[in-house]
Amino acid sequence: MSAASPQSRRPRSGNRRDEAARLAVLHAADDLLVEHGFGALTVEAIARRAGVAKQTIYRWWPSKVEILLDTLIEDSAKRLPVPALEPTAETVRGYLRDFARFLTDDPAGKVLLALVAQAQHDPGTAERLQERYLRPRRDQERDMLTRASAAGEITPALDPDTTLDAVVGPLVYRALTGSDVPPDLVDALAGNLLGPRRG
Fold it and tell me: Which pairs from 34-42 meet CB under 8 Å and 24+ separation?
């Protein structure tokens, strides 16, 4: 066996360990936020729950906000993808229903709500949340509505950004105040703001 073989195996093993530790940190942050809230969440508690050194966390993330953003981004991509190909009226409405469930039932939805709340009095959190999560997702959502409208699937009376604000805003508000987000509310908002399919 050549001398290069063991060397090539070691980085892969290290990468697997690093990935396992990274995922442990993300899961720990997610769980602790749901259990104790944003204010009680500390890097020390995350390190204890994840079974990693605090220094390891600070080597990868400068703050708990960045850990939560990584959790939110990864979980949203898996559990709340924005429809990408030829969206129909039903896929747009389905996305909005999924978003409502994400806010109320998914731990990552709790992360989003916690970051939105924290952003109200922390400009740094507001900037990072916009830059890393809200703006990229809004770009995808706007594209979804634009393509659905161009295909005649929906006929919104407002521009895409205003339509999204008008539909999503009440859902986020209800979730932030601890209220349920019933499916009929989502359907009513979508029906009033997206308009009927042409033809």
Answer: 34/107, 34/110, 37/114, 38/114, 38/115, 38/117, 38/118
pLDDT at residue 11, as a whole number: 38
CB count in 10 Å sphere of residue 131: 11
Q: Tell me what pLDDT residue 197 has.
A: 80
- For residues 166, 138, 60, 38, the Cα torsion angle rounded to the nearest 10 degrees is 0
C-alpha 77/C-alpha 40 separation (Å) is 27
Integer Cα distance of 57 and 46 in angstroms: 9
- For the full predicted model, state whether its pTM sits above 0.85: yes
User: Can you tell me which residue has the tokens 């999924």?
Assistant: 98
